[in-house]
Each structure stands twice: as C-alpha cells, then as structure tokens.
C-alpha cells in the first residue's frame, strides 16, 4: 500500500498544480480538472485530466510543435 499512497500523493500534487495554474476567466477549465488513481492489477496509474476542448491550446499554445 505504500506504493499506492505514493502514487496518490503524486497525483494529488499534479492535480493541485494544474488547477492552480489554470487561467481563470469563468473558472470552467480549473473546475473541469479531475484526478484518478487506478490499480490495473499490473500497474498503478495516476491520471490528471479534463474534458474541456480548449485545454490543449492553453497547455501547449496554438503554434506548430516540432
């Protein structure tokens, strides 16, 4: 369970930073950032995600990426 606790703490840290760094106009992006920790039986997965369509543009910008 130590590994699960470590993955959970790391995911919470990333989640908190993502919400804190999201630009706030109406708060839609920050409010849509969620986290999930899952034990697949083979691996532990920590995810921080959003379903807001414009999130990649906020994260990466709109220019070309090489």
Describe how the helices and strands are arranged.
Blueprint lengths: L1 H20 L6 H4 L2 E6 L4 E6 L5 H6 L6
Can I get a quick summary?
This protein is an alpha+beta fold. It has helices spanning 2-21, 28-31, 55-60, and strands at residues 34-39, 44-49.
The end-to-end span amounts to 40 Å
Helical amount: 40-55%
Q: What is the count of helical runs?
A: 3
Q: Estimate what percentage of residues fall within beta strands.
A: 15-25%
- Total strand segments: 2
Largest sheet, order of strands side by side?
1-2
Globally, the shape reads: elongated
Biggest sheet record: 2 strands, antiparallel
Order of helices and strands: HHEEH
Q: Quote the average pLDDT.
A: 92
Would you identify the regions where 5 or more consecutive residues have pLDDT less than 50?
none
Structural class: alpha+beta
Radius of gyration: 14 Å
């Amino acid at each position: 369970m130590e590994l699960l606790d470590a993955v959970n703490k790391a995911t919470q840290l990333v989640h908190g930073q993502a919400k804190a760094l999201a630009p706030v106009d109406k708060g839609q992006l920050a409010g849509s950032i969620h986290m999930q920790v899952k034990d697949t039986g083979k691996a532990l997965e920590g995810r921080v995600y959003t379903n807001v369509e414009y999130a990649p543009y906020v994260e990466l910008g709109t220019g070309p990426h090489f």
